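ugh ok so i messed up the first submission bc i forgot one of the chains. this is the corrected input, ALL of the components this time, i swear. 943 residues overall. if the numbers dont match what u have on ur side tell me asap before i send this to the collaborators (the ones from the other lab, u know who)
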Amino acid sequence: MPSRLTRHLQWTTTPELSGRAYTETRAMAAMRPQTARVQGVSTDALALLAAPNAPTDARPSHDPPLAVREEAIYLLHIAAEVEHALMVQYLYAAYSLGGPQVPPEDRDRVRRWRESILGIAREEMGHLVTVQNILLLLGGPLTLSREDFPVPADLYPFTFRLEPLTQRSLAKYVIAEMPDESNFQPGTPEREELDRIKKVAQLDNDDIPVDRVGILYQQIIDLLNAVASEDFDADSVRFQARPDEWGLGYQNLIILSASNLAEAQAALRSVAEQGEGASMDPTPPTALPVDPSHFGRFLNVYRQFPDAAGWVPSHPVPTNPTTASMPHEDPDMEQGRITNEQTRMWGQLFNLRYKMLLLYLLHACSTSGRLTANEARTPRGLLVSWAFGEMYNLRSIADILTTLPQHEDGSLEHVGGAPFEMPYSLALPDREASRWRFHRDSLTTSMSLTAEILKHAEPAHRPYLHGLQGLDQAAQNIIFPIIGG
Amino acid sequence: MPITRILELRILPPFAIGRLGSSPDPMDNYEVAIREDDPVGFRQILPADTLVVDRGSGEITGLVKPPRVQFRDAAGRIRPVSPFLEVWARFEADGPLLPLTAHHLADLGLTPADLQWSAHLGNIKVFRRTGDTHDKVEAMTGPFSDHTVRELHGLCDNFLPDTFLFLGSVQYIKPTEAFPEIRLRFTPAPGKVYGPPGPDGASDNVVPVYDPTRGHWVGFADPDNSRLSTNPATIYAGRADPTPGSDLWFSRGFLDDECDGIIDVQLTYTEKAAGTQKTLGAYARVSVGPPTFAPDSFPVRTVADELEQAMLGPDVDAPVAQGEVAEIVRRVIDTVRLMNTEVMNRPTQGMGRMDHLDVARAAEPIQDPSIIDALAIRSRHERVLLALESGTLAWFARVLRDYDEVGDLSDEGRRKMPSLMRGADARHLALTRRQVNKVRAAARALLAAEANTDHTEG
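and heres the new structure output, hopefully the right one now
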């Protein structure tokens, strides 16, 4: 079923191949990839269009076409969803790494993989924030939304799936971040390696070819040329996220603000280029990647990763974990359901802090970061700090989840995983006090949930939970005067 | 079993820091603890067992745990921190150090009176600036073995006749059956201000001692803003030189009653087996700090950190306990809780101003003003500590300033941690190399801790 975004999405390459036909074709292909034939478009044509390095230059657009500024906003919304989806999948993959089954001699290597993938996820967050900045520049609504389960197949470079890191899942990440195939001459060892990885990726993606993400940005960059100069809101810079606030000095973290067309295009170009490296990574397998692109780093991990018959680098975390209280009808969804009540509450706590992170981020980008003459202070710094706090909390809780049983039997053969379930809404209220009431309420919910978890918490987790409660209470004490409560 | 010999004496602690206080009732002992139900909150101050001394007899009359910890007495006076210096001894070559008691002395046919103590303390702050040896203030007790209170009268050639700086007192505690240990107590001065008579010292708060006709402390100025004696220079009460363009700062001639020095103990006895007379000795250093304190907070870099580095070196070879790093992070929070980061970040204040004055760097805020709000900064650090509770050393290890980056005045360099603070070299503060290495070693250890969970930094 098409989602809000995808029901309007078309990919246009030639006049003969309409966007609608393409969209429907992909949907069909997701169901019956080998046999689909829709409106005379063969699966061969589909493969040509959707293949990672298809020479057709398929471009996404809205159906029907929108006014150019809004078209750009629409595609930026898609970009935000894609970056968000990539980020959580990479985070989940990184959190899954480790466990007592990792041979001692390989632990340092697994640690480096984890660092590497967490770094990529962090940079995807930078991309997501940069996209929000461009949305602010164009006067468009911010979005941190993301499709929830079941996720439509035709929006993302590959089917959204929270899964432990495997060689097959890595193959998808490599191909999704890959530069244009023309960089690699046919017949060269690099091209042959990429072809092999592509096959693995497609196999793991329900036999659907994995898309590249860069094409979306190219379309937006081109579109921006046609946006009227007066539609660029230079004053929005004071609301935009800045690397000084969010960067923490990470060298590869791209958080760019923009006050005009050139800066916006440069920012999007940087984002696109960070994903795709210019060449195959020559890094020797024992060292951290030299090539800073996501492609290069994923490829580096891929080359070192044990095959399916080798040792297992990941905790036995589920695929697509959920905290649903009732069984899913779909057996694939049901296998990911966390049924151990204590673990489920940890999963719910994770979801809640995930929501809090997204709302703090949205609120910060809706709050001016520069003081005016009448202001003594801005709460933006507080929101930024709290957003960072939630990033730390997500990592902490995700790690704890990998030590807890997924099911009621208490066995650690299957452990919990970070569910990353989306909240019912991410709409930020219009009025400032109401926004802070949202935060207050989330903190109240968290304290209640934490108190429940504490009743049966393991001793090792108690200090963390107590600390979380203490900081939540302190945060509420800061909020009360703001809302006049 | 009776002892037959003493091989070695020590005074423990070898370095004791007292605190000024005008109350006759010294500070009780207390412990500072982390609350299990609030691991990120303020530390708790808990009463601890305290020895009660009868200053008249010199005896310890009891060991009590006060119901609550009070830093001032009923009259509102600060209670001084008065450290005990205990004599420990080694009786066998490979044996442990043990507290020396009157019973041990009796085994050797000795009494507590056979120990000889002496104290030599001084305040040479004025001498350090003027270079005039007649400005040294020193108090020496000479040898003593009785248990009376010995006042420490700091004498100075440039003082008015019959005046002195009262630097506190020492008392050899009289061993009893209940408390037979050999120890001395040092009680610091009350915390008064001393100075010259006349207009400069004309205040009820200033005790006139300094003779401006003999010494040059009154009206003295550090030459050319010299940093030879202290860094920054001119940190004494004074007046600016009215001459246009002059940086000179003229002293008003004040002194305080802080001091430091050596406490020495000697024991001479005849070892029966060898038939030879032996003299054993030990000494300890004492120092005194001012009564400005936040008892539930600890500075991020302390003398203890310096001593640990001096003793063990800057590198950390052994595994670092997570608690050690948590303690460093907690001290960071202690510190930021006491800072008005928004004000300190202004280009006209703190290090931003110093960078401008010292090296003509552009006067700019150090951190992005939108995130420097004190509550925001505190929140952020508290959340780092919370992450550490779950085994994640978030962000912290990567942004620490290295010792050789204290003069890095780039935006990135000035934003490293600790931020907004000045070190003893007047440049941006860095933790000790050993502290930094501890945090980084712990981060690596957490990253490699695969057995239970796997964590990473950043």
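quick check: Residues 450-458 of chain B have pLDDT under 50 and may be disordered. that seems consistent at least. Residues 322-337 of chain B form the longest helix (16 residues).
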